[in-house]
Amino acid sequence: MLEKYLMIFLVSMVPLIELRGAIPIAVGFNLPLVPSYIVCVLGNMIPVPIIYLFARKVLEWGADKPLIGKFFSWCLEKGHKGGAKLQEKAGRGLFVALLLFVGIPLPGTGAWTGTLAASLLDMDFKSSVTAVLLGVILAGIIMGLASAGVFGALGALF
User: Fold this and answer.
1) Helix or strand (DSSP H, E) at 52
2) Would residue 8 count as lying in a domain?
3) pTM recorded for the entire structure
4) By residue range, what is the domain housing residue 108?
5) Which one, out of 31, 64, 110, 132, has a CA that is 20 to 30 A from the CA of 86?
């Protein structure tokens, strides 16, 4: 059982998959939902401070390098686009916009992209991490409900 928890912990750290993929895996493993949820949230949040503090610098450094430049430029572009969309829609409510951007479980809107966007927008560290954490918690609740079949059951009722 420990191996299964380790697996969902590690999957929740992977970019693009994150907690959105780890929670359904936990349900597939027949793990209890609440402990799995906590493990997935922790796993999803571990890379966030590292991304905020170092990703922008590393991406800018590597953007003009021969082998990695194309990918690094793509990552920077994705972060800039995400940040621009957030800022355009949010105005002064950037904290709430970042929270919702991370919290709505759609492809490419997780903690990795949200944190990179916050870094590129020069949001302060504490606000960025707090907004991303609350967004990850929201995404985890949505994915937990979806994985537990609540949305399917509601759809069948209506």
Assistant:
1) none
2) yes
3) 0.84
4) 2-149
5) 64
